[in-house]
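MODEL INPUT / OUTPUT PAIR
PAIR INDEX: 1
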Amino acid sequence: MTTNGNTGGLEFLAATPLLWLSLTLVAYLVAVAVNERSNKMPLLNPTLLAIALVVAVLAATGTSYKRYFDGAQFIHFLLGPAVVAMAVPLYRHTKLIRQSAGALLGALAIGSVTAIFSSVLVARGLGGNRDLWLSVAPKSATAAISMAISEQIGGIPALTGVLTIATGITGACLASYVLGLAGVKQSHARGFAMGLSSHGIATARAFQESEVAGTFASLAMALNGISTTVLVPLIIGLFDRVT
């Protein structure tokens, strides 16, 4: 009776949204604490650590992703207001953005084209089929945009989502080191590069460096979403014509 009662209680608890919402928040708070203790080491990115913790719990308990997401989707809902809130630091630094407009537009054009071309060329060079390189082409845009583009051009949206998240985590973990080796020291340049190449996750990392870096990362993320939407179909069409 007790065993059945305990089992029923666990099943009831697992079915409640609060459990998975709480798990997500606790995992992220633990990840942030670990990151803080390591002096905010980029390789110990809070998002990466939180994902690892949640996946470990889901695997250990045999919980499906659908059940987890049904409980934690309120956090997904908050992504919208969080993106809108980025307008506040953008407004604060309008003067600096205007002063850097020419350089930013040049970096946007080069970065967007390079991200798309390099992704497709690597996928093709490694023997990937057309579905793969259509799915990987928009990976440097934020997930909602990249998955929508992938669906429109005939890619696999779920695969694009995975590649997009992997791109963001990789950028958040390595961008600081790469930019340091390249001698990029200005906060606005560092932030713009991070947001352009690795969207939202790297933008969060940029805000850890400074508000200016985070502001320019969020600007780059938004602009790259627009440019990727325009450029991916054009570049894919170019590849189709030459092959």
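PAIR INDEX: 2
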Amino acid sequence: MLTLAWPWWLLLAPLPWLLRRVLPGLPQRSEAALRAPVGLSLPASQNMRSATRGAWRALLLLWLAWLLLLLAAAR
């Protein structure tokens, strides 16, 4: 059985979600962050699909890191 020294640390788990809902986001740029030669670019549909998949992976990894940090703080 898992016993924690400070279980109240786990109450901070939804903090990133709350901050994202309350604080205003950064303004979006219309230009590309990375420029590639025309011959190396992907079709627009494939590029968007891989970009959204990569964003979800990054978000999942950030949430996992946050939860592991909270578990470590709770001992």
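PAIR 2 NOTE: The mean pLDDT is 82.
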